[in-house]
Amino acid sequence: MYNSKSKKAEEFIDDGEIRRTMDYARDNKENKELILSIMAKAEKMKGLTYEEAALLLECDYEDVNGMIFDLAKRIKKKIYGNRIVMFAPLYLSNYCVNGCTYCPYHFANKNICRKKLSQQEIEKEVIALQDMGHKRLALETGEDPVNCPIEYVLESIKTIYAIKHKNGAIRRVNVNIAATTVENYKKLKDAGIGTYILFQETYNKEVYEKIHPTGPKSNYAYHTEAMDRAMEGGIDDVGMGVLFGLYGYKYDFIGLLMHAKHLEDVFGVGPHTLSVPRIRPADDIDLKDFPDAVTDDVFKKIVAILRIAVPYTGIIVSTRESKKSREEVLELGVSQISGASRTSVGGYAEGEEEEENSAQFDISDNRTLDEVVNWLLKLGHIPSFCTACYREGRTGDRFMAFAKSGDISMSCQPNAIMTLKEYLDDYASEETKKNGEKIILQEMDNLINKDIKDIVAERLAEIDLGKRDFRF
Ligand code: SF4
Ligand code: SF4
Predict the structure, then answer these.
(1) Any domain includes 93
(2) Which of 28, 51, 53, 270 is 20 to 30 A from residue 417's alpha carbon, by CA?
(3) Residue 294 Cα to ligand 1 middle (Å)
């Protein structure tokens, strides 16, 4: 029986309720009046229910689909401006005791080289990342209580925050590790993590159990209830996602929004971010085994409707998407992207070629961070290396209140300008620097508050003199 406030996975993600919602969407897909009334509600930019979002996803009317894309773009512009926050994943260990059928790290794969970084190797990786200009990382590990215990993750976080190479610093460490206990989430919170990220992969229990045949991850309820435990452990910024293509995308789209509603109803705050990975080819993984893989058009529509349904939740795309695909979804609502990612353990310091037989996924966008930054600038976006909110205590419901009041742009915009300026002074090529300085001038003009504008102008001059880490 569906109950969004229940703490039991099978009640807050109820198969019957998802299927009822899918039927409702299918039965009403030609009810234009109803669809237009949902679009009118969406125009208020306060979000939609999973039922309303499911109907928009089902809708085939070309003109309405045009309206959906147009509104997604307007919401993106109004709430996020042209800022795109940059991050990089850092793979610490690919030992894994699970048997996920879609991931090459599954324990039975003997083709990949298993590796766990020592603290000295982590230091090398982090220096390589800092030398590119990264300030925000997402730590990734496989699940292995013996080779990769929580103590190792905590020690690694401490190592990462302590490294200051030249003007570099990692200012926010997000963590994507396997579902764990409330006690371990408390430890992660105390270690100063930003967002705890965990993908559900699929919300369909039967399929979930089939593609997770062995290992602790095979426990659907334990995995699905992980965000509740994380929040009970004090982590109030959580990042969710599904791996689109494992099962029917309509089912998982509804499941994702249902999960977001559950967190909102129980803890008063939904997810901080949603990630939208799609199943990709990799070693030992054949796309023919995944007939539900989503097309580019469906992918774009999913991003656009998520933007409309949860306007204040960040949307992340990774380098698994091609340059072309990322370009299209950026304007539809994506607010964070990874740049120059390596999905192998040790891939930043050693280079991916040497390490490629330990990579988790093939990457579709292989450009350097400087190339990605320059590409964003040329498209008129401001690449932002901002990490201010969590460092200023703006997390969880405080973040959401700040975001919904609209005050957030008073911070995001100047922070984007200042962190871009740091990047240009420390790491950019001549061409990127030229394009970046041009955007900074333009964006300074767009700062409406005169006091803030004066402060930013002063700080930009100080950054030129070598000072770093200003923030609002
Ligand atoms: Fe292990 Fe995660 Fe890959 Fe599953 S998805 S095999 S848990 S690394
Ligand atoms: Fe993100 Fe906060 Fe920085 Fe805005 S001010 S970009 S919300 S960290």
Answers:
(1) yes
(2) 270
(3) 21
